[in-house]
Every structure is written in C-alpha cells, then in structure tokens.
Amino acid sequence: MSALLEVDGLSKYYPVLERRLFRASKQTEIRAVDGVSFSVAEGETLGLVGESGCGKTTTARSILNLVEPSDGAVRFQGEDIVPVFRGGDRARILAIRRSLQYVFQDPYLSLNPRWTIGETLKEPLRVHRPEAPETWDARIGELLRMVGLEPHHAWRYPHEFSGGQRQRVGIARALAIEPRLLILDEPVSSLDVSVRAQILNLLAELQDRLGLAYLYISHDLSSVRYISTHVAVMYLGKLVEIGPVDDIFTRPRHHYTRALLSAIPVPSPGAAQDRIVLQGEVPSAMRRPTGCPFHPRCAAALPVCAQSEPLLMPPSAPHRAACHNPL
Amino acid sequence: MLSTLAPASSPPVVAAPAPLLQVRDLRVHFHTREGVVRAVDGVDYHVNPAETLGIVGESGSGKTVSSLATLRLVPPPARMAGGQILFEGQDLLAKKPAEMAALRGRRIAMIFQNPATSLNPIYSIGAQLGEILMWHEKASRAEADARVVELLGLVGISDPGARLRQFPHELSGGMKQRVGIARALLCNPSLVLADEPTTALDVTIQAQILELLADLQKRFRMSMVLVTHDMGVVARMASRITVMYAGRVCESADAATIFNAPRHPYTRALLESMPRIDHSYTGAARRPLPTIAGRPPNLLNPPPGCRFHDRCPEAAPECRRLLPLETPVGPGHTVSCLKRGSEGIAA
Amino acid sequence: MGTARYIARRLIFSLCLILGVSVILFAMINAIGNPVEVLLAERPGITEEMIQAVTEYYGLNGSVTDRYFTWIWALLRLDFGTSIIYNLPVSEMLVTYGLETLKIQVPAILIALLVSVLISVLAATRQYSRVDFGVIASAMVGHSMPGFLLGIVLILIFSYSLGILPSYGAYSTRNPLWGSDVADALWHMVLPVGMLVFFNCATLTLLLRSSLVDVLRQDFITAARASGLPERRVVFGHALRNAFIPVLTYLGILFGLMLGTAPVTETVFTWPGLGALYIMAIQQLDYPLIMGATMVITVMLVTATLLTDIAYVAIDPRIRLG
Amino acid sequence: MSDATLPAIAAPRQRAPGIWRQSWYRFRRNRAGLIGLAMVTLVVLVALLAPFAAPFAPDDTSAMLRGAARRAPSALHWLGTDRNGYDVFTRMIYGARTALAVGLGAMIIASVIGVIIGGIAGYAGGMVDELLMRFAEFFMVIPVFVVILAVVRLFGIVVVGTWLEDIPNLNLMTIIVLLGCFEWPPIARMARAEFLRLRNSEFVEAAHCIGSSRRDILLRHILPNAMPPLIVLVALGIGGAILAETMVSFLGFGDPRAVSWGQSLYFNYEALKVAPWAVLSPGAALFVTVLGFNLLADGLTDAFNPRTRQ
Hints:
The structure holds 4 protein chains of 4 kinds. Chain B is an alpha/beta fold. Chain B has helices at residues 63-70, 97-103, 125-136, 141-154, 160-163, 173-185, 203-220, 231-237, 255-260, 265-272, and strands at 21-31, 36-47, 52-56, 78-87, 90-91, 108-111, 191-195, 223-228, 240-245, 248-254, 322-324, 327-330, 333-335, 344-346. Chain B has an 8-stranded mixed beta sheet with strand order 6-7-8-3-9-10-13-12, sandwiched between helices. A 4-stranded antiparallel beta sheet of chain B has the order 2-1-4-5. By secondary structure, chain C is mainly alpha-helical. Chain C folds into 2 domains: 2-76, no CATH class; 90-315, MetI-like (MetI-like fold, Orthogonal Bundle). Chain C is built from 13 helices and no strands. Residues 1-13 of chain D have low confidence and may be disordered. Chains in contact: A-B, A-C, A-D, B-C, B-D, C-D. The interface between A and B is large, with 47 and 47 residues.
C-alpha cells in the first residue's frame, strides 16, 4: 500500500506577544504542533488521539490549510500541498480540495443554518462540477441515500434534524466530490451513545464501499479502536507513539499512552484494569518542559528525560514510541 | 461548631438498611409555549447509606432534572408535578423553603457538570466557599478559611492557602472541579449529588477526579448519586445502577447485574452498541456494531405505552398501549418491560 | 501589574480622544473661514476696519496650525479666552454653568441607579409574572418616551395645572421659597431631576432586568442555591454583581447621553446650565465659548467613560488579566 | 449499512419553513413585537397617505387670517390650530413623512458605513481591526448631539451664496447625513462581532474546505447570517434618529422649510401654557413612532434568537 497522505515534520507555531507597560514587549511562541510526521495509506484509517490542547485538531487544520503550517511538508498523492496553497493557484487548490475533505465535530455548527440540506450539498458540486448543473440534483439524491437519508430531506433545514442526522449530512457533503481521504474531527463526540454506533457503522461501511482513507481524530479511544487500522498518540504538540491499532491498545510502549488507555473506564464493573492515574495536569503550551514533554508526570522518568528529547524509535518500524525508557 | 474531618457518625450497616434517599413517582414537567414536556415522568429510585448509585441515560432522559429535583431546584419553567422525595424519612417536597435551604449544602450537596460555569467568576475561591460555612455553621471568617484550606488540601489542590485568594478563571478545569467538590463537602453532607462531574474534563483528569470521588466517598461514608451518560464511569464508580430513558426508569440493579445480565432491551442495546477498548476490531473483526434504530422520543408528545417501544426490537402490540411498571425480577433487580413480566397500565 | 496597565491604557486612550475632538472641533470652526468675519457678517453695518481690529485682538491672523497650538496651549493653562458676546472669561462661565448642569445630572444618575436596582430585582426574581410584565411594559414605555417630552408633560401637570412646582430656572427670581436659598434651589431641581430619573430609570431597568434574568439562569446561581445560601444573598450577593458587568458600559454611555442632550433638557426647563449656554453660544456664534463648552462636555464625557472602565476592574476580576 | 430508520415522513414535502419564516412564526407570538409592528405600520401608512388623510394642506395658514390661530380642538380643526395658524392635525400627519425620511435616510447611511467598516474589521482582524475599532470607539465617545448642533449651524453659514443654497431642504439633508455619519459605530461593532464569529464558524470553514471562493463565503455565507442582529440595531436606530432630528429642530436648528414634529415643537413651545395641544400632538406622534420602533426591535430580537425565551 502506498502512502496517500504523508505528513513530514509538520509544525504550527503561534506567536504570543507578552505586552508590558514600561518595558519592551516580549515575543514568545506557542508550539501547538511541533514536528509531527505520519502517513495514511489508501483505504486505511489513522486514529489521531490525545487530550484537549494536544494539537490534534491543529494538525488536521494545518493539513487542510485552514491554518497555514509554520514548517514541514504535507505530501498528498506524492505532491507537497503546502506551497500549492501558499501559491494561491485556484485550479490546483481545487484539485487538492476535491480529494481531501473534512468532517467537523459539531454537526450543528458546521451546516449553514439558512440553507436547506440540498443547498448545502449543492455547494461542493457548484464549485467542482460547474460544467454539469443538470447532474447536481441526481447526485444530491444519491448522496443522501448513501448516508442513510432520503432524497426529499434535501428540502429541509438543519434545525429539523437530530444530531446524528446532521452528522450524516456533514459526511454527505464531504463525499459529494468523491474524495480519497476524509479527515474526521471528533465526528461522534457530540452525539448520544445510541447514535454514535450508527455513525461509526456508516463510516466503516463507506470506507469499505468507496475505498476511502480516514484520518480519524478523537479523544474517545473506544471509537478509535473500532474504526482505526493505525493509531498515533499526541501529547503537547508532539507525536509520542504511533503504530498498528492492536499493538497500541494491547502493548503500548510509551508511558503516556499506557496511562491514557488505563484512564478510560471500561464498562465492566470490577474489571481487572491496572489503573494508572497520572498526577498533575498537562502543562501550558507556553511553559513546555525541556526534554521529553511528558517527563514531569512520568513515573518512569530518567535523568536524561529532562535533558534530551526522545525520537520516535525504532525508526521505520511500524510501531514507534518517543521514549528514553519504553515499556 | 465546625464538624471535623472524622468519618460521619452513622454506624456501619449490616442488614438491609433503610434507604437514605427514596424517590417515589417523581414527576417534573416543563411548561413551555408548545405544551407540557414531561421531562421526568414517574421515576422511582433509592440510595442506601454509604453507597454510590449511578443514574445512566442519554441526553433528555431526565437524569439531571431528577437530581436537581431532589434539592427542589428545578429551574423555571419546570415544575414539580408530583411524587415524594424522602430524605432520612422526611418528605422534602413537604418542607418549608427555609427548612429546605437549611438542608442544602449541609446535608445534601451537589457537584455540577461544568466547573467553568458553576463557580461565581467574580468572587475568590476563599470568599465563595467560606461564605457557605459562615452561613450554615455560623463560623467566623478565620474558622471558615481554615476549614476551606483543609478541604482544598483534601481534594488534592496544592498550596491551598494561596488558592483562597485566587479567582476561578485563574484555575484549570480540573482544579475548578476539585474546588467544586470541596464546596460540596464543606459541611460533611450525608448525600452528594454529582451531575456528570467529569464530562467536561479530559480523560486523564477524569481518572483523577473519579479516583478522588471514590476515595472521599469511602472515607466519609457518604452516599453519592452519580448522574452520567458514560457506562464506563458508572462501572467504575457505582455499586447500584438505575438506567433511565425518556423520563422513566427502565431498569435498576446492582452494577454487576446491569453489565452482566441486563434484562431491559434498552440496557442491552446500550451496552452492545458501544465499541470497547478491550476488543479488537481489526480486519474482519470490524463488523457493524449493533445499533438502536431511530432516536429518543420528543417528550412534548411521548409515544403512548412503553416509551421505548418504537425503537425496541422485541416490541409487541401491547407495548404500544400499556405503560410498564417497575417489577422485581431478582434480588434488588427491577425492570419495567411488559415482556419481562411487568404490569402495564393504560396511560 | 495587569490592573495598572489596563488603567494606564484607558487613560492614554482617553487623552487621545480629547485631543482628537479638539482637532476636529478646531478644523470645523475654521472651515467656515475667519469666525469673527462670519460673526460680524451677520451683523450689518460693520466696517472692514472693525473686523480687522477684532481679528487682531483674537489673534486670528496666524496660520491654522499656529492658531491651533496657541489655543491648545492656552487650554492646558485653563485659559479659555473671553466670550465675545458676554465679555466675560469663558472659564468662569463654564464653571458656573457646568456646576448647574452637574447639580441635576449627578443626583439623577444616582437616584435612577438605586431605584432601577430595586425594581429589576423585583421583576427578575419573578420572571414571567404579572409584576415582571408590568415592569417591562412600563420600562419600555418610559424608555421610548423622549425625555424632553416627558419634561413638557411634567411642566403641564405640576406647574401649569397644579401650580406646585416651578416650571423654569434654578432659583426664584425675587424671593426664595420659604425664605431659604437651599430649599428654593432644591424645589427648583425637583422637576428636571425627576424627568432625568424617570428616563434613566426606565432604560437602566430594561438592561439590568434582562441581565439579571440571564445571570439567574447560570450554573453558579444554582450552585449557590444548592449550597443552601439564603435567597437574599444569592440574588443580591451573587447575581446582582454579575448582572452589573454588562450594564456598567451603558452607565458611561447614559451619562454621556445626558450630557449630550443637556441642551434640550435645559431648554425645556430654562435651566442655566452648560447645555443652555452652549445653545446660546452657537446661536450667537460666540467662538471662544463654543470651543470651551464643547471641550468641557467632551472632557466630562471621557471622564465618565474612564470611570466606568475603572469600575470594571473593581467589579470583574477577569479584567485584571488585561 | 447501518439499519437506522428515520422517523416516517408522510409525504415528501416541498421546502420546509426557512429560518426567516420561522423567525416570523416566533415574532407572531410576541405581543410586544406585534404592537410595535402595528404602530410602525400605522406611521408608515399615515406618511404614505398624508395628502388623503390630512384635512388641510400642510402650508395652509388661513386660520391665521381668520383670526383663528391657537384655537383649541374643534370639529373643523380636530387637534386645534397653532400660533402660526397651521392645522395641528395636518402638520402632525405630514410630519410622519419627514420623520421616516430622517429615520430611514440616516440608518441607510449608518448601515452602509457600519457594515463596511465592521465587516472589514471583523474579516481582516489584526491591526486593521484594532485601528478601525478604536476609530469607532472614538465616534462613540464624542458628544454627538452637541457636535451636530454646531455643524448644522455653521454649515448653514458656509453655504450662503453658493450653489448648495438652492438645494431644497438642504438643512434637513445635512441633519440626515450627520446622523448617519454619527450613528454607524454601534452597527460597525455588531457587524464586526458577527463577522468575527462567522468567519471562525464551522460552516464557513467547511466552505473553505470545499473550495468556495472568498467572495461566495462573504456574500452567501457570512453576510446573510450576520443580518438578524443588524436588523434589530437598525430598527432601534431609526427610532433614535427620528428622536435626534426632533431634538435638533426643537432647539431651533432644524429645517425651517420642513414640516416636522420638531419644528412644530419649536414654534409652539413658548405658547405651551395657552395652546398645549400644539405641543402635545407632535410629541405624541413622536412617542408613538419611537415606541413602535423600540417594540419592533424587541420583538425582532426574540424572533431571531430562539434561545432567549423558550
């Protein structure tokens, strides 16, 4: 399998101007994403997990150029797309957008409340298939069926739908122009438990049928386990572990991954779960620790952890962890 | 006099204890322009001394409203439409407002879902916590401060003395929730209502808070009602569980029974539909998850009969007509389902 | 640190505002040419020589920038020049008339604040009740009632029909009422202050009530009640202070509005205040007086805004982060 | 395929009620808003039908010649006559035209300036935003009313002897333009807040992902969604502008050739004691108009904001 999407050393820094009254202002920066590299192959799902503020959403938004990356390359189908977006050649940008789509976390906020579902679904066709407007209506009906809705729903407004149905519309919009890769940003987090399974099933089914690749971003590890073939774990803007899903979940090598997994309460009372409760909280991105970002909270930290930053090891292995003292 | 941190005085329970809190046929209705929303419509549950009861349900199941109703704090346009809430044998609904206020915060306390909005942004931590002690226990400022510092330390806040002068916006989400917990425990209550106490928090912080709550509950032998939508959280925390759906109770039992031998079709479906982190779904193992078709009913106009019948795989014609009542199916295990032998009433 | 920086920033901005207004004002006045020429042009029978003489007297021969800096420099020394029409020092007139304006405006704001707090609490704690509805309806009517119209109605009722309150002026022309100057002054204040209170009260109540209703719905209010605090403490201690935060901005604006519309108020009640002085100055094109009065009104307004900014810091700890 | 069944829908409907129609449904249930709408409609109808509704011509001073000035209301002069011999009722009706012209004219100018400045500030962000908003703040703090009085008076002198003098109702137009130029900051602030909110909203980001052009995003996504709160502000502003014009005229700085409520107040205020009807009638008309627009704005706030009252 070839890599469809290759992210290489992606970084996003936000400058922070610390204003002071009588002294010169101090310029610092927040490293929201710091040198993240991973790849997603055709037909695969990479689950990107981490706690809030770890940079997983910024990573996704940088890939799509919703924010401009500060550094690094994003190769999609072999082409670095960062300079393309920066160059502003509309035809080339549209060609990328066609194959690379985004599904948002909040299915309510991501639909224009003043547009009918049909108008929302027509938008991508208007932009990408302007030559054949007569085919739009048929395609909209087809899309709605594909996500388990009915063609006549095209006449309705978002507020008439439940959360799960709205998320289906969001998926249909992303699929309208036959993308190869979908970036799914917490697509089920705002949904009720009983609806979550419906959307996960839909995603799995669409992947099998259309051969889509997913970058699945979530803090909900159980849905990640269900949908992903590979998992990448982020902490404070850095990738700390990446590997095949079962390896990560059964044999985590980074101490943070293990703590994260053990923090998820398993729905079986009295389950023999070795609970590791991390002490303290994630430090602010402005006061990032030196060395391994996790070392102040790590029970297995060595002196070296405070000094040098570990790299993802072993290089080029499928399962890699950035830890000086791996499990 | 200030109570000390010694465990509460109730003796260890041996045989079937009298429940500390007993809720009977509770009804809370929201009077909206569109009509009456039956948010809680005939709910029964009880909490024994020194145990944790988990109330699980999806959004709109009435779980939060029923816990607010225990304190008689349902927000307008909601109104208590009936039922009994017996706390230590006395009906709270029959109490005068002043008597009720004297119970709140002292005997029954509450932990809120969103730590960011449940602390007053313009008062320092010390001021808003101390005020409660000064009111309930007639403590002096200094006594109150000392007790607040003690409790902040107890809930795992470092340097509690300095925190007294801090404001909520200066604390992280996890810290704010710890303050919220300290506030609930100030007067050594015998019952704590925790409404989704960890939903707004990250998983590793959630683990910290859950551990803290479990520890405090054991230490002070208090009873706790833990309201949540997360089956994993109740599995970790609760000794007994009540499952709610659309304003009514489906099933109540001890935790092991709910997870290992659920009887109500909704409980079963809910458990099955969750992907689990301890299962592998790679390759051919990724089969479609069992789902619950449709969506929860609109409580403005709930379906007649069993509230779950239009999504239930086992629904029979009588389920459309008759509202099932809670029926015991085992020791400490009750189910409301006509197919499990519940009596039905035409409603 | 944060607080000091915040206040310093607002202070600097306020100074910039005052400076900006002075530039605009000066430019405007000078856009019409030599103001004295214009003034005298409206009075027939004036010769070129006379214009020349007055122009020289007021130093209007230099370039525009020169004149601006001369003026600003004089202003900084609190030298506002001499009124052309009244031939009195402008600064003296501004103080006399300004105090008369503040005499009705400041009490009006304070009384309105107190009354609207009480009414808002009454209404907001009984949301959707008849009391609430009555308060909203009358506040809406009061808020829409133009202040000067209300003043006219009050004069018709209390002065002309009932004859119990004076309809004009700040003092009796001949004998003070009851032989006491203080009582006389207070008695004259009743109508203008009453009108301003009514108008401000309506507007403040509308704002404060809706803000209070919002705050009362917040989690921390439920939390305060769940902690067993008495309702009085929850409403006055926890809700009211929070509800004031959005209203505070408006308080500054309201004071500005009152000052801005002082010409109307003072015309209705023939009150010898800054607004009435300003009208006279414009009508007569009394150049130094227009400049002086505008600057004083601006400074008062900017000060009111600055004070509300500072009050924010006192009431809302979140501001301190800047 | 997941087996989720959707709630059965009887028949495929045509377009469901859109957001505007929904707002209308909510508005209809708001009594205050409806009263406001009725009052505003009344004022608009009176203004449109003035020549048919008024018993006299607006410049008819024949009562003066008959010695019937300052007469109390009678069968002939329903609301009496004023000190110039005008029929008070007629002047009140024609005044609605001036009032609406002032309100609409000023708010059109203010909206255009406000939306452009606020939109640029909100969409561009950064330094541009900072500068434009400070500029708006500056306009909010200067004593607008006082400045308008000065400008109207001085402008009246400047135009003497120029071609501008021949423009009919020049003075009134000056007032309208000035009100427009001073009333834009609240609109700009609201427009900025809305543009900022919408620019970062998920559905706009979704449009970016699809590849919609910047123009489409601004005109088809952001602007229509920013409208509701702006409409409320404009409704409030119309009432405010009418009130301001009346006050300017009341002080004697208005357009002597315009038939406006403020002019009537100005001419008749000195005779308040002997002919109160000549003052109270235009005053009442002004009150009804301002109240109407305020109530309308209140109703619109509710209608556009489903969360405020549930």
